[in-house]
Amino acid sequence: MSAFDQLVQHSKKVSNFKHLAAISGWDQATVMPSGGNQARSEAMAELSVHIHQLMTAPQLGEWFDKAQQEELSNEQQAALRELKREWQQATVLPEDLVQAKSLAGSKCEHAWRKQRVDNDWQGFEANWSEVVNLSQQEAQIRAEANGLTRYDAMLDLYEPGTNSASLDVLFADVKTWLPSLIDQVIDQQSSLELVSPTGQFHRATQKQLGMEVMQLLQFDFEHGRLDESVHPFCGGVPTDVRITTRYDESEFVQSLMGIVHETGHARYEQGLPKAWAGTPAGEARSMGIHESQSLFFEMQVARSEAFIGHLARLAQKHFAEHDPSLMSRTNLQRLYTQVKKDFIRVDADELTYPAHVILRYEIEKALINGEIKHTDVPELWDNKMQAYLGLSTKDNYRNGCMQDIHWTDGAFGYFPSYTLGAMYAAQFMAAMKKTVDVDGAIESGELSPIFNWLSSNIWQKGSLLNTDNLVEQATGEKLNASFFKQHLMSRYL
Amino acid sequence: MSAFDQLVQHSKKVSNFKHLAAISGWDQATVMPSGGNQARSEAMAELSVHIHQLMTAPQLGEWFDKAQQEELSNEQQAALRELKREWQQATVLPEDLVQAKSLAGSKCEHAWRKQRVDNDWQGFEANWSEVVNLSQQEAQIRAEANGLTRYDAMLDLYEPGTNSASLDVLFADVKTWLPSLIDQVIDQQSSLELVSPTGQFHRATQKQLGMEVMQLLQFDFEHGRLDESVHPFCGGVPTDVRITTRYDESEFVQSLMGIVHETGHARYEQGLPKAWAGTPAGEARSMGIHESQSLFFEMQVARSEAFIGHLARLAQKHFAEHDPSLMSRTNLQRLYTQVKKDFIRVDADELTYPAHVILRYEIEKALINGEIKHTDVPELWDNKMQAYLGLSTKDNYRNGCMQDIHWTDGAFGYFPSYTLGAMYAAQFMAAMKKTVDVDGAIESGELSPIFNWLSSNIWQKGSLLNTDNLVEQATGEKLNASFFKQHLMSRYL
Ligand SMILES: [Zn+2]
Ligand SMILES: [Zn+2]
């Protein structure tokens, strides 16, 4: 067996254990009774250790050396590049740093759940200090290993091939037009009448409605499920993708669009190249590209006039006892495009969302690069919230820098993916429209032409291309913010 | 760390991986979409290999040698005995035999699913021949290792400490009175009027009813769930026990009693000693003792007049739109104690069930001991069915020797557990009644005194006692068939 084949076989073995981790994690988040949590957590920790041992097995170094001498096809070379990337990321950190960060992160995250409610910055800061410190050490080691700046080395974990120099350009562009656009849209929307949901929307009915919309979006129910969890997610494995939502019985619009979003993630997973299943080449390209698919479904497809027409029709069918004016196409469209300056990222609308992300990016970049201290964060946050959204978070940590889970366990470098995803999605749609009658497909309810384009340009590529090549081959140019701007202008003005 | 502690720590590691196997298996049987099956089976096979490697790790032999020299408490000695038993069972077979049997078993079982429908003995026999052959080899190796006869070495896998000499005595006893008792009861029941279910019994309502009965039986929903699967089972782990049932909407009596049965299994698991969790000493004593708990719930408690009164009341509440005479106490009692000579073990009633088991026991014992050939089985089956239940299975393989899954993959030695369970259950009830007002507890609906007895005499013992000691300490004597006979006489005559 060639060294390359040995690496692939080993990767599939690791993937089998990751499969079990994904299913046990899904179970824990959806159906596990609370009393099962401790034993489950121990079992999953044991599995993590085993997976880490496999991923850093001593024979891998030699196999990589040999494989690089072997004659490989272009695809195999790409697969080898991704295998090596994963291996280097797993091996570059010393074990004691990995453990220390994991411990500090768990402790900080656990305490944060209460500290956030209590607006307790002092308590949080005491734990977070260590998380930041260890993350800086991690960034330093990763930076030395691959010759990047410290923040870029962290960014590389989520967005391989992207760096802060490119992000600075993209986000600087956005900052020139976003704040004034937000003001203009809010002003314009202030005169619109809006019917808000009242009464009860049964969860079972919401689920039925959601599943019909998933069918419209051609979710493959032979290879996936819809369930409930406190925090919606897309999990499982490509042959069995598990998406979740949460239902609020006082309205249906949130869970419905949440299901559309997760369906986008799910179809990417379901559409990944089977030939490379169980290896990194058969996985999603990056967090940003993953988010581009969920946001393509949510923002580009489902918030279009034509698709909202479908949602209106289906909602009226399922909620026939409710006021139909709530579910008119016009009213649903207004509900789904309402813009509001507010504190909380996860509740933000399409237009203000990038402001939340750019603020976090600027702060975490300075923090990881060692240009600011973690104690500087609240004031910086306040300044930037004032500048981008005109809101003060002074002494309001809970709705300020303590609102997100990401920083509590040191996932620095993740936030840009959200806005990169929105930008990619807009650029993909613009490219798709050159060859596909997108509006006609949505109007007809037969969306295959859209999915065929995504499948051949994005899903089927897995990680066989680097991100820049993926985007260039799909759209003819590198990522730039102009399509995103154009999309927002035409939707909101 | 002492060698004993090392063994315990290693066992808990293995147990963590078994936890993941249990949950993935539950998922596969209950919620997994069909398209996920291949990747899941591969992941679970990988996990099995890993578990087997851990259980046969080379350092264990030395640890066992050392541990046997260490000063251990009585409980620790018992725990060490069970650890060693498990280790020996895992290590005694050569790898190639394990793999060959697993392969032949999978092939035979897979083909059997269709062959049984087709009544295709020739086709089945061709595959089964190899399964029997490999099982005989397995029995031979196990017999040499522990000085038992071949069949007893297989029996030991499911019923440690039991042997065919004792089973011969127990079953010979049963055979003296069971056939005539069956005839007498059938004759007596022929004049009884019976209201059969008609109309539709919605699965959601059946589930609600089932969950209320589980509450009456004090199932701990903080540490377990009820779900649906094609073949009902009790799975999961002691901190998170997953029971399943299947619903037939044309009636409710089967699923309801099925839920009671699995709840018995579940409460045993939930009640196992936490101090030994993750080691064999903290596991169920044997398959027969496990079945004794499910049958205690199903046959001893739930088919009592008083408990059927509760079932009648709850059924009438949930199925208020149905004919109440169906759900009268008397009618439910008649439905739940109807005796009928028939071909299929899994559909058999309490009274004819032992005949099905004894028949299988006698055949598999002769087969594994090499006294008969596998091609002799159909004729032997027919002879014994004629003798015990007056039915011919000539040329009727599908309802004869091809009806069970157990033999298809070589699980020889398992069948006796069913009837041992029924006998243990009867003996436990007789003993319990000496100190507990069982009828009063059931009548009142507050069943704690019953569960307290089971908990302290059975559940909390795990595998810390051998089976004989467990039964003697709980009931004052060794297992014998008289309590079972007495129970059947007083219920059915
Ligand atoms: Zn997303
Ligand atoms: Zn059972």
Describe the overall structure.
Chains A, B: This is Metal-dependent carboxypeptidase. The structure is a homodimer of 493-residue chains. Chain A is mainly alpha-helical and 493 residues long. The first copy, chain A, folds into two domains: 3-158, no CATH class; 166-492, Neurolysin, domain 3 (Orthogonal Bundle), CATH 1.10.1370.30. The first copy, chain A, is built from 20 helices and three strands. Chain A has helices at residues 3-30, 37-55, 60-67, 74-91, 95-118, 121-146, 150-158, 164-189, 203-216, 253-270, 287-301, 305-318, 329-336, 353-368, 377-389, 416-432, 438-444, 448-457, 467-475, 482-492, and strands at 224-228, 234-237, 240-245. In chain A, helix 8 runs antiparallel to helix 14 (353-368). The N and C termini of chain A lie far apart (61 Å). Chain A binds chain B through residues 13, 16-17, 19-20, 23-24, 27, 31-36, 38-40, 42-44, 46-47, 50, 220-225, 236-240, 277, and chain B through 13, 16-17, 19-20, 23-24, 27, 31-36, 38-40, 42-44, 46-47, 50, 220-225, 236-240, 277. The structure holds zinc ion (ZN) (2 copies). Residues 261, 265, 291, 294 of chain A line the site of one zinc ion (ZN).
Secondary structure: elements and pairs:
Two copies of one chain form a homodimer.
Chain A: H1 3-30, H2 37-55, H3 60-67, H4 74-91, H5 95-118, H6 121-146, H7 150-158, H8 164-189, H9 203-216, E1 224-228, E2 234-237, E3 240-245, H10 253-270, H11 287-301, H12 305-318, H13 329-336, H14 353-368, H15 377-389, H16 416-432, H17 438-444, H18 448-457, H19 467-475, H20 482-492
Parallel strand pairs in A: 1-3
Antiparallel strand pairs in A: 2-3
Helix pairs in contact in A: 1-2, 1-3, 5-6, 6-7, 8-14, 9-10, 9-12, 10-11, 11-16, 14-15, 16-20
The complex binds zinc ion (2 copies).
One zinc ion is lined by residues 261, 265, 291, 294 of chain A.
